[in-house]
TrEMBL record:
PANTHER family: DUF839 DOMAIN-CONTAINING PROTEIN (PTHR35399:SF2), SLR8030 PROTEIN (PTHR35399). Signal peptide: none annotated. Gene3D superfamilies: TolB, C-terminal domain. Residues 596-617 are annotated as: Disordered. PROSITE patterns: TAT. It holds the Pfam family PhoX. This is Phosphatase. It comes from the Bacteria. InterPro entries: 6-blade_b-propeller_TolB-like, PhoX, TAT_signal.
Amino acid sequence: MSARSTTPTLSELIATRLSRREVIGGLLAGTALAAIPGAAFADRSHDPSTLKFAQPPHTIGQDQAVSPGHAAQILVRWGDPIQPGLEPFDPRTFNAAEQEKRFGYNNDFLAFLPLPVGSQTSNHGLLCANFEYTNPELMFPGLGIKTKLETMTREQVDTEIAAHGHGIVEIRREGDIWHVVEASPFNRRLSALSTPIAVSGPAAGHPRLRTAADPEGRTVIGTLNNCSGGVTPWGTVLIAEENFDTYFGGDPKKTSEAGNYARIGLKGKSRYAWSRFHDRFNVDKEPNEPNRFGWVIEVDPYDPTFTPVKRTALGRFKHEAATVVVTPDRKVVVYTGDDEAFEYLYRFVAARKFDPAHRQANFGLLDDGTLSVARFDDEGGLVWLPMVWGQGPLIPANGFHSQADVVIEARRAADLLGATPMDRPEDVETSPLTGKVYMVLTNNTKRPPEKVNRANPRSDNRHGHILELIPPGAGKPGTAHHDADRFRWSVLLLAGTEQDGARYHPKNQQYGQWLSCPDNITFDNKGRLWIATDQGSAQANHDIPDGLYACDLEGEGRALVKFFYAVPKDAEMCGPCFTPDGTTLFVAVQHPGEDSTFDAPSTRWPDFRDDMPPRPSVVAIRRHDGRPIG
Ligand code: FEO
Ligand code: CA
Ligand code: CA
Ligand code: CA
């Protein structure tokens, strides 16, 4: 039976899947610790969590807040120079040429790649950062939220385009302080204004990717809406294009791609003014351009001359991330979710095996393999459905004439295969200790009661949940068969409060904290899960900050969630990433002050200067005693 057609109620789910003890815990869980005076001083002798750090106040503020005993240093901000000899950042004279030499806007995914390549160095390396999108009304003086699209200048638009993409910055720690090496030969900006990106895999050169500027369909200028990403075992970085539909104007219904664009949600109502100045962002003039975005891109940060590559074998949709793991027999597997309500979880298994002895031999691995999509059943099983042209419904009668059509219209192919529509798939990451896979579903307020299933158990799911996917052989490092046809799965936690039917550890109320809208996740060296949150505009209703939380995954403290770090007002938490020794945790603070303007911002974090707007920034967190965090 398809998971889609079953409609158990939440009480049925609880009755069938949870023990009585878990039910009681789940019902009690979620009351805010902050609401219980003195709870921070509760008897810790019975706290089953292995995470013993003190929690900061669970309240929204204009400044960041970190767990007592830690320092949170601003490492690099939007506009900071990443080349030598530049003037200090001045937002009033800023322009596109300057932006291409400086740190971009709205940092999201972060990776730390040690220097030299292949080492486990923890005080020197390359910081790789995605620059997802822009808030022009916070970047430039004089713009109104409602009027900006009509009033922005060409120079402002080009600065915005240049602020998108990716950045690679050499960083070094001296004592407890990290700094950017401005004169590093590694420092590089990938800009949506100027950086050529190659296209490889099944869709490379396909007529549906050809444009006036690129009649071969093999080179795209720039990458857009890079949300999260991943690091390959050969030391390259994958960056994921997410909400690329928001950049295009014109009328998609009048193009030959009308059905494709409707399925991806491209309506031609752009959030940006770009189509006023650049024909390629107007589908009336360049109808194929949107087919050149929505991909996963591979970047080699160790080679500043490397041409980044759009790896089309991984499919085209709104990729949240792309995380890589190797099976016991060295097969390379990529997990990648499609972040929209009722979209799917995908997996790519490369045809060739990872070669640890020859770094360059792995660079084409992601061009050839099998893309699949997940179907969750109500008995706790997961089946991977191969998306192979010519098989099942993926045939010319349904408009699929090659594997290029399958990857370009991956959502429609997955619909036909019967994949399970999920509650907005955000990050998917694999525990390095157990090989279990954690899948974050951030929220989905559009799910009606008749469409709940066990993998998406709440209608009007405002707070999201996290699933645990268990491949055969999981339990120890390196033993999980991520390429298997079938997995098992269970619920790790349901976020929110008691009133929302949340489910955490039974002692969450006493020792932990509640969270809402999990987004990006990572693991520390002890295999514990660190969870970044993004409530978006719902933050004011929930009245808790976004930030970083952590919980055990195994043992007595499983799903007991502790609060570690709060972002400033109207920001979201992105990019949690540890150095190899676990002593520094890098986090990305994205869109501080969102929904306010340069002239009247809701916070001026991190500079708190009257002449400076809020600035998205990367923060380096360390313990005062320098020991591993957590
Ligand atoms: Fe860019 Fe799904 O967050
Ligand atoms: Ca974001
Ligand atoms: Ca995200
Ligand atoms: Ca999000």
